């Protein structure tokens, strides 16, 4: 095992390298690598949050009129700055969120990818032109900036989710107010400091288009997030986190008719059919269930295996689970890093207890450190689809059940509250087409011969039902950040009414 630096010292040195120093008191920032205190950060007061919202509202009045491709140029510069700082930022993600180094770096790569995407998009915010029933008329739609966007993000993708929102919102003409997870404030400070560099370059190179306060950071807990949710000046709130949080936030946004983009919990299933390429399936299952220590919204939680294969699949998964290396996420040999905190460890232990009570046979799952943060991934053979399988436990627990027909497997896939991600392993065209059809999986992500997690930014990302219905990142997700105006333009000398209505004066 390589000799690894003290995590808190390494994190402080990365922050110093990025020009950031931490205050002596404030909100504690810890690393799950060994639970140590890295330092403190200064939380925003309600008055500061209120002032930030007012500044964002003022920034919107200017930024909305900056040409789209100029807005895209700022995002392109941010992508350049991120490329330069990818290594330290990726390491900091690992130190603060506990994901393996390759995943920490991958998260920053995802930020770079969405910046590239958004820069191109800034020249493509197009509307349609429709034929009209009236002579001498033109019918079309235009897309306009929406207003300040509040972004509330979760600990497990501490920076990429913000960047998905930031890069699209900025090219769409909207300033952003970001309330990151209180569990990952340091990565937020770091990526925001790098954004400010891009903004300074933009001001130097494109001075006439530079607008202050188009991206602001509000460190704090739910109470600061709630200020964004309740403020009428925040036109869209994009909230990523648990379904529990969504249940609180969604009605408040609905009450003031605000736009919402909700990216909530998942409870994702993968179906293994008799025709599946098992070697492929096992690799995909291992990453989807154990990767990021099961702390992805798209992590695989429910494995539905055809009953003819179930014993073989379980027998082949058991040694993979038993040999997966659990440890310091900076060690290149580690596959499973720590959970975010002791409460997450307790949540995992409780779910396994509930599984045993429901007749499940549990393999693994035990804590390997005294704090209970490092845990062996668990594989649980369930007698039937039920008990703790029905809800999301944010930890590396994979429940396995058998099924007899594809119809039954699809029913089980769709039978939980969440509707985020799903997958099927099959080499039978009829089975795969059935799964992706209207009568198939009811999730926002429906994959064939690939796991449930690890999406690219090019597609729209999000899920249905208790996952909240929001879509972020690629495809036409940008529309959530803009308002649509339908324009009818009369260039004739008459004033005909639609549907043949007459009103002769
Ligand atoms: P969480 O719900 O505890 O917190 C998420 C964010 O919401 C934090 O910033 C928190 O401060 C804020 N928040 C909590 N209550 C709030 C309230 N009442 N008002 C305003 N803000 C509030 O989630 P977490 O533990 O950080 O993250 C894990 C959860 O996030 C899992 O359920 C996971 O599936 C989900 N998640 C979903 C996606 C997705 O795209 N669907 C992506 C990542 C994580």
TrEMBL record:
Q: Which residues cross the membrane?
A: none
Record EC number: 1.2.1.3
Question: Molecular function (GO) terms listed?
Answer: aldehyde dehydrogenase (NAD+) activity
Specify the Aldehyde dehydrogenase domain's residue ranges. Answer: 27-484
Question: What residues sit in the active site?
Answer: 263
Entry keyword set? NAD, Oxidoreductase
Keyword Flavoprotein in record: no
Give yes or no: UniProt keyword Zinc-finger: no
Show the InterPro entries listed in the entry.
Answer: Ald_DH/histidinol_DH, Ald_DH_C, Ald_DH_CS_GLU, Ald_DH_N, Aldehyde_DH_dom, ALDH7A1-like
SUPFAM superfamilies assigned to the protein according to its UniProt record, in alphabetical order: ALDH-like (SSF53720)
EC main group:
oxidoreductase
Family under the similarity heading? Belongs to the aldehyde dehydrogenase family.
Spell out the PANTHER family in the cross-references: ALPHA-AMINOADIPIC SEMIALDEHYDE DEHYDROGENASE (PTHR43521)
Describe the protein's quaternary organization and the partners it interacts with: Homotetramer.
- Which protein, by its recorded name, is this? aldehyde dehydrogenase (NAD(+))
């Amino acid at each position: 095992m390589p000799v690894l630096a003290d995590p808190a010292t390494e994190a402080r040195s990365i922050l110093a390298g990025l020009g950031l120093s931490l205050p002596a008191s404030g909100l504690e920032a810890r690393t799950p690598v060994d639970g140590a205190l890295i330092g403190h950060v200064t939380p925003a007061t309600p008055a500061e949050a209120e002032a930030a919202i007012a500044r964002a509202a003022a920034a919107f009045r200017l930024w909305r009129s900056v040409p789209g491709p100029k807005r895209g140029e700022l995002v392109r510069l941010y992508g350049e700055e991120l490329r330069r700082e990818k290594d330290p930022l990726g390491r900091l993600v690992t130190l603060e969120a506990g994901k393996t180094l390759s995943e920490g770096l991958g998260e920053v790569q995802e930020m770079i990818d969405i910046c590239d995407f958004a820069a191109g998009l800034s020249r493509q915010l197009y509307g349609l032109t429709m034929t009209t029933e009236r002579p001498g008329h033109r019918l079309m739609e235009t897309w306009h900036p929406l207003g300040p966007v509040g972004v509330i993000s979760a600990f497990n993708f501490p920076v990429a989710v913000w960047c998905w929102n930031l890069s699209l919102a900025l090219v769409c003409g909207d300033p952003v107010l970001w309330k990151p997870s209180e569990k990952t404030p340091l990565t937020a400070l770091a990526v925001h400091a790098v954004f400010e560099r891009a903004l300074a370059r933009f001001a130097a190179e494109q001075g006439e288009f530079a607008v202050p306060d188009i991206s602001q950071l509000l460190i704090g807990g739910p109470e600061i997030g709630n200020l964004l949710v309740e403020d009428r000046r925040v036109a869209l709130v994009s909230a990523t986190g648990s379904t529990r949080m969504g249940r609180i936030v969604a009605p408040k946004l609905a009450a003031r008719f605000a736009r919402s983009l909700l990216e909530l919990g998942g409870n994702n299933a993968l179906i293994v059919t008799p025709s599946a390429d098992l070697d492929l399936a096992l690799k995909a299952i291992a990453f989807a269930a154990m990767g990021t220590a099961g702390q992805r919204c798209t992590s695989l939680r429910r494995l539905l295996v055809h009953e003819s294969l179930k014993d073989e699949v379980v027998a082949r998964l058991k040694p993979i689970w038993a040999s997966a290396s659990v440890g310091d996420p900076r060690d290149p040999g580690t596959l499973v890093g720590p959970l975010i905190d002791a409460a997450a460890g307790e949540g995992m232990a409780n779910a396994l207890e509930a599984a045993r009570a429901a007749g499940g046979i549990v393999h693994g799952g035990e804590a390997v450190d005294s704090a209970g943060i490092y845990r062996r991934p668990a594989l649980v053979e369930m007698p039937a689809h039920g008990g703790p399988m029905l809800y999301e436990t944010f930890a590396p627990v994979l429940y396995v059940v058998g099924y007899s027909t594809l119809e039954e497997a699809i029913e089980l896939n769709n039978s939980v509250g969440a509707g985020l991600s799903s997958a099927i392993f099959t080499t039978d065209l009829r089975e795969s087409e059935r799964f992706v059809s209207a009568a198939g999986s009811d999730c926002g992500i429906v994959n064939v011969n690939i796991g449930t997690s690890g999406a690219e930014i090019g597609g729209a990302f999000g899920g249905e039902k208790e996952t909240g219905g929001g879509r972020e990142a690629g495809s036409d997700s940008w529309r959530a950040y803009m308002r649509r105006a339908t324009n009818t333009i009369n260039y004739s000398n008459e004033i005909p009414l639609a549907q043949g209505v007459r009103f002769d004066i």
